[in-house]
Amino acid sequence: MSKRKLRELVEKGYVEGWDDPRMPTLCGLRRRGFTPESIKNFIELNGVSKTVSVADWGLLEYCVREDLNRKADRVMGVLNPLRVIIENYPEDQTEEFDVENNPERPERGTRKVPFSREIFIERDDFEINPPPKYFRLKPDGEVRLKNAYFIKCIGYETDENGEVTLVRATYDPASRGGESPDGRKVRGTIHWVSAKHALDAEVRLYDKLFSVENPDDTPEGSDYKDYINPKSLVIIKGAKLEPSLKEAMPGDCFQFLRLGYFCVDNKDSSPDHLVFNRTVTLKDTWAKIASKHAK
Q1: Cα dihedral: 145, 148, 149, 153 (round 10)
Q2: Can you give the pTM of this predicted structure?
Q3: Which of 102, 128, 140, 246 is the most exposed place for a label (fewest CB within 10 A)?
Q4: Stretch 130-152: mean pLDDT, rounded?
Q5: CA 40 to CA 160: how far, in whole Å?
């Protein structure tokens, strides 16, 4: 994309500046969490061409996933929290689990993750009327809490609009660590955060700035700005994160289990107001986005 068009995006307020994490600039990529090694690998894989060409953004995302898979510690964060009360867990009890930081690098060791009677799970991880092959939490259904216990839904509460506001559950004390002595199989595993210990954070979900692969290659007479992706930035104010992230520093990168790779924003984040930017999802969603736009 030409520098003139990029400057126009900045001047007209479509992005906040040259270091906006949606911008295809080095400072924008670094603020979003793309590592130097991933950018260098992307350049090497692309090679040198004597003709004008467009590099595949999906390849750049592949490079950063490969690099962060080895480097980023795994942590638990809940972006759209739903409160769960475990009725048969003691109200005044807190325990800790030893959780592996990175299975790709055992030398990274483990950390302590607290667990209590009230936890947060992703709202998408509970359905009243689930579709077929839904292996997450549902009425009378059982799931495994990552590294913790099996829990079973025994009830839920809704608001006047029918939206679930609270899930009630019981846990199996014998399933500590995620396995049960009786050998029963639980297919679903979900992440969670202890409500008592959760950190509040702002999470910015960045995606591709345009809804087409190449904004310079659009139908004649159209304006490239018509193809700006309205969901290129989604801001979540009420995310809940595990307490180990309290010491995270600007630029630090993590994998939020089941959600993607995220880094601490190097401009707006502070100890009193944590801000995380999504670097990339765990899976490539470009093909799905492109096919919908084509229709």
Answers
A1: -30
A2: 0.91
A3: 140
A4: 95
A5: 53
